[in-house]
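Show me a record, fold above all:
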Amino acid sequence: MQLFAHGFGGVKDLPIPLWLAITAAVGALVVSFVVLALTTRPDSAARPVRDRSVPLPRRIVDSTGWVVAWRVVGVLIAAYTAYVAIWSPDLATNPLFGIFYVLMWVGVVFASLLFGEVWKAISPVRAVAEVLYTARGTREPLLRYPERLGMWPATLGLLAFTWLELVHPDNDFQSPVRTWLTVYVAVMIVGGQIWGDTFYENCDPFEVYSSLMARLSPWARVDGRLVLRRPLANLDATPTKPGQVAVLAILFGTIAYDAFHESVPWFRFTQASGWSNAHPGWVIWVNDAGLIGFPLVIGLFYMVGTMCTGVGDVRRRDLPAALAPSLIPIVAGYVVAHYLSYFWLSSQLTLQMASDPNHTGADWFGTSDMSINTWLLRDATFLAVLKVLAVVIGHILGVISAHKRALRVLPREHVVTGQLPLLVTMIGLTGGGLYLLFST
């Protein structure tokens, strides 16, 4: 359910024509690449990362009490969510939809960009797993998680969530959300007992999403120490796993689909044609195809571009995975651009509705009468410029990250020329993404 449209403002709100915004964004990427190519030494990728220790907070965040406290927070939120999912009226004002579509899907990502692996800290399924580990008397999994699976199972969970949010015709009713959450909890608990914590790291769609975005946060753990470091240094240390490209393609592609499927061209194609009248299921089938097709096209475009980057003895098929973390800031830029206004308004409405889930005049959390702050939404032009900046900054950070990774995998004599196909790929993603974002 969308309490409000994800996007706020469109191409008409840009202070310049869309083609000029795309041109400027592409120009920024090209300039960034040229500067990096001219100023970055080939051995710079091997330089050690400078971390700043934070000894005082570490005493707190490494304590059992700190870990348990956040687990309790997660369990309490899960308990409240279960309550409103089962016993509160099935109305659009039920806070279940705000918790599920706004706080869990968007809020956790924004928090992860700032504070690190937030979902891992508050995950209620991990809390249940800890209880079951204690009951079993061991944390050892029953089976070893197959490394070749990597993050591939998470792609199913991410597609399932976005399908419910964007395609399911009854996504604003309790029953589908209840069913989704029930299946999610059951799969996570059973999977965690069979394959251990590694299962959550690779298969929990919320944890995978949160952890990938957390690579842009300034917080990291090195040899058990809590440290502060440059976000790009944190990103550079991101391990690659099977299925990581697919996960990032789904995150990017579903945002692109979400932006475009509310546009006039998409509406004309799906609903204003004779097919929609003659075949009632046509719209749903087309939306299903779009939800799968957008990530597929983006993933293939990225893979072709990165494989063309290969020169010399570098195995081309290894390059998409090796360069995949460079997509993380790009996805983060589109998350901010697409969801910021939606989150700003809908999160406040969710907190407001949470105090009186049964419409009895109660005020459980003292938020029933809270005023809604709309300052971010008052100037559509400012918001449109903010969107463009988020996308451009995300792509520039992606170019920097890709360049650093290319220094490690490409032959020294082909460091610049070998990256040209990758630059073309980044330009295509930038232009296409901005067009889809402002196509409404």
Remarks:
- The chain has 19 helices and three strands.
- The radius of gyration is 22 Å.
